[in-house]
Amino acid sequence: MPNHVTVQELIDKVRLKVLQGEDYLGRTITTSDISRPALEFAGYFKHYPAMRIQLLGITEISFSKDLTHDQMVEYMTRMCTPQTPCFVISTNLPIPQELKKAAEDAQIPILGTHLTSSQILSNMTSYLLGRLAPRKSLHGVLVDISGVGVLITGDSGVGKSETALELVRRGHRLVADDRVEVYARDEQTLIGTAPAILQHLMEIRGIGIIDVSTLYGTGAIMPVDNINLIVHLETWTPDTKFDRLGDRGDTQTIQGVIIPKVSVPVKTGRNLAIIIESAAMNYRAETMGYDATKTFDENLNRLIKQNSARDSKEQGK
Predict the structure, then answer these.
(1) In Å, how far are 92, 121, 281, 296 from 57, measured between CA atoms?
(2) Which residues make Cβ contacts (< 8 Å) with residue 297, sequence separation at least 6?
(3) Model pLDDT, residue 24
C-alpha cells in the first residue's frame, strides 16, 4: 500500500504544468486532503495544515492584492514549510511575486492549470484518494458481470477461479484472481483491484498460471472495478440451511462500506457461472426498483385470497 505520492506523479496523472521548481518534483504528498488557504491570507496560522497541497484560486489571489508587501512576505514565508508538498494555482492566474520568492527559498514547486479551483480540486482529490486510501487484501476473485462488480469468496479449492474463468468465457471481465486489494473511495463505494504481481493472471488447479489477456484478449480484463455484490460459495451439506427466497438481506461490511451478500451452495452438477451471472442480473434489477421476492409474495397473497373467496363461496352453497 503506497503511503505517499510524489509531486511528479500528481503532475503526470492530473495534467498540471510546472510554473516553478522543476528540481523539487520529488517532494512527497501524504494526504488526499487539499487546503484552500483563506484564513492564512488573513494571518491566522494556528491550525495551518502544512502537509496538504495548497490550492490558490481567484478568491485567494484577489484577496492577496489587498495585502501590503510586508504582509505577503510574512504570510508566504510561513506557508512554505518543510512539510508543504507544493502549491497549485488555478485558472491560469499569475503567481504572486512574494510566493515565488518564498517557494524558491523553501524549494517547493508551484504548479498551474487552466481549470477552475473546483475542477482541479475534484481531480486531485479523486486521484489521491485512490492512491493513498488504506487498502485491505481479501482472498477472492473479482469479476465484472455486465457492469456489476461481483466479489466471489469461499474456502480455498471451492471453485472460485474456475467459475470466474467460465464467466470470462461467457464475455465478462476479470479484475483480480486469488487476492483482491480493496479500498473505500467514500462511505458508499468500495473499489477492488489486483496486486501488481497478479494483474491479468489466474491460477487454475491442474493447469497452473494462465494470462487471461493473452488467451482471451484485452477485452476480458479490467484494471479496477467497484464491488457491488459479494457471492460466497459454500460447500453444500444436508444440514446447512440456505436462503431460498432471497429475502434475508445479508450484507458484509468491508472498509466501512456495506455490500449486499448472497451465499450459493456448491454441489456437483450446479453451473455456478450461470448462478452468479443471474445473481448479478438480479442485483441490477433490484437497484432499478424490481424485487422478485416482493412480486412472489404479492402473487402468493393474491392466490390465497382467491382460494379463500372460492372456499367461502362453496361453503355458502
Answers:
(1) 9, 10, 45, 57
(2) none
(3) 96
